[in-house]
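User: Some background: our group keeps a shared notebook of sequences we're curious about, and every so often someone picks one and asks for a predicted structure to add to the entry. Today it's my turn. The entry only has the sequence so far, pasted here. Could you supply the structure so I can complete it?
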Amino acid sequence: MNKDEQGKLQQEVSQSNKARQLLDNPLLKESLDQLKKLYAESLFNTGASESETREKLWLAYNVVGKVEQHLQEILDTGKLAKKQLEDFRTSIKNNKF
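Assistant: Of course. Here's the predicted structure to add to the notebook entry:
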């Protein structure tokens, strides 16, 4: 593994740590939950002739989920990167002895 690859993996680990902080942040969790609840309630309370409003609310609801999903993907990628770095360091340590 070259220095560039190690640097990329370390950056992924760093990003993962930041994503974990966000996902564990009670204010962010509450905000995302409130937004999903608001969009869902608004969506279900639209009238039959409000198809454009329903579409916009549906998109908004889905965007909130996509943000959560993206943060989770960053977290998962960082976990894999951390494991790769640990395996690499272990292999170097084992080869030196």
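Suggested note for the entry: The chain has three helices and no strands. Residues 19 and 94 are 32 Å apart (CA to CA).
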